[in-house]
Amino acid sequence: MTATDSLSVWLRVRREVDWRHSPALQRVPAGRDGFRSWCEGPVRRRDPIRAERLLAAHTLAREDAARQTPLNFALLARWQREVLAATGAPFRVSDAYAKAGRERYGLTPHTQAYFDSCLNETTDPDIPLAARAARAYLDVAFFHPFADGNARAALLTLVYVLAREDIVPPEVDPLQTTRYADDPAGATDLATLIGVLNCPVSFDLCRWHGA
User: Fold this and answer.
1) Under DSSP, is residue 195 helix (H, G, I), strand (E, B) or coil?
2) How many domains does the chain fold into?
3) Which range of residues forms the domain containing residue 50?
């Protein structure tokens, strides 16, 4: 029996979530760069080469954000070539699977174009920035565009969307919990978490209490 198309499920959930009630983000003084700290810490301890590749991709993403480069699959593929140290990072050519096969992401002739359309919505001024970043992260996770490295691509996308508006998350580890395509509450929780991490007081309290 063919597994449910979790991408179709996500696209339905994506339309149903009330993204407009996500928290507003504020620009705070430059400080800790959570993505860079994550690469220099736990990632480097596990795999120094992986850390260097991620840092190179992060540099590209921050440069693209500063230039306000439009977000689309081609831009993600540029970063992904650094992440994977590959000469190419094409859009997948078949259904993709995750979570030990429990989620299947279908493919049609229109999937890549629909993905670009979703990424284009990250500039929608009617949606709070935290929601746009969370939604883009989940779009990458559930469109699952690459054969490998989609979790890394999702995190780079989130960082890019925030950096485009001069927001640098001081922590990214809490963002990397398992997400499910059929979970609207989890989608809104991700947007809320981005808002919490953006607050310097909340972040300092988390560090103080060892969270």
Assistant:
1) helix
2) 1
3) 6-17+30-208
